[in-house]
Amino acid sequence: MDIFDLVQDAGHEQVVFCHDEASGLKSIIAIHDTTLGPALGGTRMWPYRNTQEALIDVLRLSEGMTYKAAVAGLALGGGKAVIIGDPRTDKTEALLRAHGRFVGTLGGRYITAEDVGITVEDMEHVYKETKHVTGIQSSPHGSGDPSPVTAYGVYWGIKASCRHKLGSDELAGVRVAVQ
Q1: Which CATH class is domain 3-144?
Q2: Does the first or last residue of the chain, that is N or C, have fewer Cβ atoms within 10 Å of its Cβ?
Q3: 128 catalytic per annotation
Q4: Per-residue pLDDT reduced to its tens digit, 46-95
């Protein structure tokens, strides 16, 4: 399928392909919808097999962020970024800072945060290049590591699922698989 067809079919406002030769950065930033406000969504670093696989993933993830923000009642839209590369071997400060510069060129239309393959510490490097970052520690307005809040949400989601399926939210003796 043609790349432009993928973008058009997904109904995105903007998709930015980013390349920085000096750092080796190859990434895609997708802004799905900014009707309610700037697009919020994390940056994922993953060893995609090819650009099309990365594009399909970022389009799917950014659309999901639109709905997530709307359901939560936030004045935010949905966006996402993916960096093509192995976070164990390809991630450097220079690469993360280059990504931050690309995020900065969007002038606040997209706000990034950590996602798979990216840590709170990595976001500090992105923050050196753009202030359109959340989930950092160094700013007085930074929210820090979102993992504990995410885990708490998963816990309550499991309890709600058990109540719906089993008639009780008691978890003693219950085995749950989270995918």
Answers
A1: alpha beta
A2: C
A3: no
A4: 999 999 999 999 999 999 999 999 999 999 999 999 999 999 999 999 99
